[in-house]
Amino acid sequence: MAKIKVKKNKKQNNVEESSSKSSKEENEVVLPPVRMSDDPTPKQVKWINRQRVLVFAARGINHRHRHLMEDLKRIMPHHKSEAKMERTKNLYVVNEISEMKNCNKCILFEGRKMRDLYLWLSNIPNGPSAKFLVENIYTMGELKMTGNCLKGSRPLLSFDPQFTKDPHYSLLKELLIQIFGVPKHHPKSQPFFDHVYTFMILDNRIWFRNYQILSEDGGLAEIGPRFVLNPVKIFSGSFGGATLWENAKYISPAKLRQAYNKKAANKYERRIEKKVMNEATRPETGYPDIEGPDFFKGDPLKKAEDVLLEEEMKQENDSTADEGENEIQTKSKPFSMKKIKSRPDKTIRRKQLKAKSKTISDQIKKRKKVIKKKVLKK
């Protein structure tokens, strides 16, 4: 009996201790963990969205295109860089390069004639991919805007509502979100938002702007860079495959320059033709109605009245003569039409003008042939 009593007392003591511990835990305030500045930063475990973007260029870009590429690298902490690719290589090699760098997205800058810049956005290795012509390039160094943001911070992505209306724009929207969106808990990124990327559609082009968030009310200040993407084609695969969409309104910059040069070449011929026209249509005398300098002597008001009276008399005589001719024609030929008066002076001038213009055009053609022969000989 004594042993049983002892066991019961032990059980009662255990219950009392557990109740006291729970009351103490309720009263305690747990402070947040503190890390010393010298200690190494702990690794993030929640980095699930492992998007890595390969940003590089092919040979043939100029200095402004290179500065734009560096600006994009600066605002994308999840990028990886690579040396310039040779132009002789096929674009399918980019898939292998990105796989070697463990990247699943790619931005490729491709230059033409050291003037035009084309941008490829691709999802590796299965696609889709899109090709753009980059226009109106303004780098951060050129703009010198007041906006500023912390390096490595995550951006908010703002899209035009027109992206949801057309299917090809919705596909491009998803591609832009996956490429320009910085993943959460990325090792090189900061865990807050302090700038916005805006993608607006205007004139069948995508306009890119980068703004700093100044306040919660919506105050913004532009940072840069600026550029406009003119979509050319969307492919089903990565850097190739079947064309899902093609821009019918796209005109290559080489064709635009060619048309501009043709217009400039025709300026000389038009100027000579205008000179010939002026010479052919120029009147022989400056004032055909004035006989001599005596016209300007005396009262100008009286002479003006006399001139008006003479013009009225001439108009009355002409009208009476026309009525008499019409009566004669109706008596002889009741249903005959009026004869059109011919003007031999103007017809002669037109013939002279045509002959002069032909001679000038022949001379211009001969000059062009001579210049081409000289160039070929050289």
TrEMBL record:
Domain of life: Eukaryota
Basic and acidic residues bias spans: 18-27
Classification via Pfam families: Brix
Transmembrane segments: none
GO annotation terms (biological process): ribosomal large subunit assembly; rRNA processing
Protein name: Ribosome biogenesis protein BRX1 homolog
Function: Required for biogenesis of the 60S ribosomal subunit.
Originating species: Euphydryas editha (Edith's checkerspot)
